[in-house]
Amino acid sequence: MDTELVLTAGAEALPGVEVETKVEEAFASGWGVIVWNDPINLMSYVAHVFQVVLKMSRQQAHKHMLEVHEKGKSLVAMEPREHAEHLVHRLQRYGLTATMEPV
Amino acid sequence: MKCAPVPDKPDWWQLDWNDFEAQMVAGSFQRMAVHYQLQVDDLPPALQAHWRGHLAEAKDADALKEEQHLLEGERQAWRSERLTLVEKWVAAYMKSGVGLAWSLQLDREELEGLLMVLNDRRLILALEQGIDETLMEVDLDNVAEIPLRQALWEVHVLALFQEQCLAALTLAENPETKKEDTP
Predict the structure, then answer these.
(1) Which of B6, B95, B100, B102 minimizes the number of CB atoms within 10 Å of its CB?
(2) What average pLDDT does this structure show over A66-90?
(3) B161 Cβ contact list (under 8 Å, min separation 6)
(4) B60 contacts in chain A (CB < 8 Å)
(5) Does residue A22 lie in a domain region?
(6) What does the pLDDT average to over B126-144?
């Protein structure tokens, strides 16, 4: 009974739009993983990390690495939020500048 | 510096440095051991920002506050893991004889760790000395400021070590590469 009261109170406290946004966010499957250019990471190292972390082929990794180098960034994966976060962690572990954003 | 697969030991790699290279890379490891032990809060602002990392650009950061906190915790853990590695390598170097050529045999996971540590050292030098794309291209003879010149030199030499390891990995995974790349 107590629990039900708390839940009801909690739900009423949230404005409808905010709840909708949170639900949308929770189920959103479109999070992009972006790798950004920087002056220090070697091109060969970036391609290597793409192969290890993102399981890209050598050719795919090379293509994305060139995109990072020439255009300043590359969208390297589109994943549900939690997996995108996991990939960003793994890319950053190698020292790459990686972020995620809803797409 | 040479990096090659260890015969009859699948996915193990041998790294060989001559006496001069060994002294240099062990020095880099030693400095990273000191760096990894420092509290992030005590580092200069640029290095603090580096070690905290960021998960998203400012426009999306609010939606990922909790996740950002998790990332910061994980980045701290990487520093501890890498400290263990560099301490082990420095001890091995000391044992093999300071000032002599040096070899290390690493499994694949540790080789990836070595690539990350070399990269950390390069990134940190760049942050400390404000090394940007222009400075990366500059002729070292034209750099008057000695700490900057030394940092650039170390950044480039460690890059060569990284390249050697990456070339060895590529060759092992794509044996046809040798034929393609040999004139």
Answers:
(1) B95
(2) 96
(3) B1, B21, B25, B118
(4) 99-102
(5) no
(6) 95
